């Protein structure tokens, strides 16, 4: 075989993956670097228990901010609701597997092993954020790329975020005795089950909600009024240098190669001025450089540092 794959025969170990491309349980948490005025806005949203609406171009670290906040404040694993044009509020709150329940009812001997309706209900990311806590603290919910949502979804979301509760009609229709005793339902991201009484899911404390937007559309004034708003600009050349140093553990003598990294950062900024580039693309290029891959070749830089809006071949 010819070409780059021949560099890794069976008896040669594969190169190590970048720290951020390892499974969740094997990643090392790296500091999230933003300016102090941006930190102040995040803290204001936390104190006010209001959703934080984070806007900015792709690649400015909007989603990474949620993971950094959850880590710093011990809010548990981030609950994520990736939004698209087909997303509905009900899907984010809960799902009821009516077909699965019907199939089990038709099985022979079903009555002997019948399960209550709660086994067919699982809370979605928003429903889980309302119903659960982590070590006595509110959960963090990331609503990602909200500007891709249907036009009515922001207003639909307002009621739940304001009241901190919602109804599951399938449970509200149960006999009063079952409602009082409560029905246990599943949650997103774990095998935990939580009790629901009277068909209502209510929060003990409002979850911390971070909503990201690429700025592709305007949101209704009523929705914006209830959010604390944060604009994340592209990191400056100085900030990019700090981010690179924070993500890579220096090796002996590596400072001797820093001028090459500085040149790569400068080239990245120049390219970014001509089209959208994500900060992790710079980290990819630095990772390759640190492992002896010549990123100054045109074809490799085009592959690693191609503008986000350019999805096809040239």
Search tags:
314 residues; alpha/beta; Rossmann fold; 2 domains; five-stranded parallel sheet; 13 strands; elongated
For the biggest sheet, the summary is: 5 strands, parallel
Distance between the termini: 27 Å
The ordered string of helix (H) and strand (E) elements is HEHEHEHEHEEEHEHHEEEEHEHHHH
Give average pLDDT, whole number: 84
Verbal overview:
By secondary structure, the chain is an alpha/beta fold. The protein has 2 domains: 196 residues, Rossmann fold, CATH 3.40.50; 70 residues. The chain contains 13 helices and 13 strands. The strands form 5 sheets. It has a 5-stranded parallel beta sheet with strand order 2-7-12-1-13, with helices on both faces. A hairpin with a 2-residue loop joins strand 5 and strand 6. Helix 11 runs antiparallel to helix 12. The longest helix has 15 residues. The protein is elongated and about 70 Å long.
């Amino acid at each position: 075989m010819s070409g780059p794959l021949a560099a890794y025969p069976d008896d040669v170990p594969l190169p190590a993956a970048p720290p951020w491309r390892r499974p969740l349980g094997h990643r090392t948490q790296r500091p999230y670097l933003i300016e102090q005025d941006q930190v102040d806005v995040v803290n204001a949203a936390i104190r006010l228990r209001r959703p934080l609406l984070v806007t900015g171009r792709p690649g400015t670290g909007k989603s990474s901010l949620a993971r950094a906040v959850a880590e710093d404040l011990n809010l548990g694993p981030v609950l994520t609701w990736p939004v698209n044009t087909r997303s509905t509020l009900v899907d984010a709150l809960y799902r009821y597997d009516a077909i699965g329940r019907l199939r089990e009812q038709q099985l022979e001997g079903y009555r002997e092993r019948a399960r209550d309706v709660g086994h067919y209900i699982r809370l979605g990311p928003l429903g889980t954020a309302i119903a659960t806590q982590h070590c006595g603290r509110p959960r963090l919910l990331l609503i990602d790329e909200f500007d891709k949502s249907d036009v009515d979804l922001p207003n639909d979301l307002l009621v739940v975020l304001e009241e901190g509760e919602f109804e599951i009609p399938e449970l509200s229709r149960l006999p009063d005795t079952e409602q009082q005793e409560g029905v246990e339902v599943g949650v997103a991201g774990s095998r935990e089950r939580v009790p629901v009484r009277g068909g209502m899911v209510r929060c003990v404390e409002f979850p911390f909600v971070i909503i990201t937007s690429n700025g592709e559309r305007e949101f209704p004034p009523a929705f914006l009024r209830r959010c604390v708003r944060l604009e994340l600009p592209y990191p400056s050349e100085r900030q990019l240098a700090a981010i690179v140093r924070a993500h890579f553990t220096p090796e002996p003598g590596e400072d001797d190669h820093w001028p090459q990294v500085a040149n790569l950062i400068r080239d990245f900024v120049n390219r970014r001025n001509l089209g959208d580039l994500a900060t992790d693309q710079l980290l990819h290029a630095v990772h390759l450089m640190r492992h002896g891959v010549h990123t100054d070749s045109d074809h490799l830089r085009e592959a690693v540092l191609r503008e986000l809006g350019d999805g096809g071949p040239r």
